[in-house]
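Bench notes, afternoon.
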Amino acid sequence: MHSLFRIQSVFSSFNWILCYKNLLLNLYLGVILFLFFMLFKEINFLLMGDFSFAYTVSHSVLYKWHKH
């Protein structure tokens, strides 16, 4: 009975370690995904900013060209 209890306690601690590792892994993945999302948003914002800037410049150039 005592050995069974010991095995059970070892299993429970092992289970806790697995759960803890899983939690850490999920946290790690969450942080990576969050950073990647922020980076992607930043890149997307820069690209969109560049695109709108280029669009404005070309639009004004075309507008001036049509006026002349």
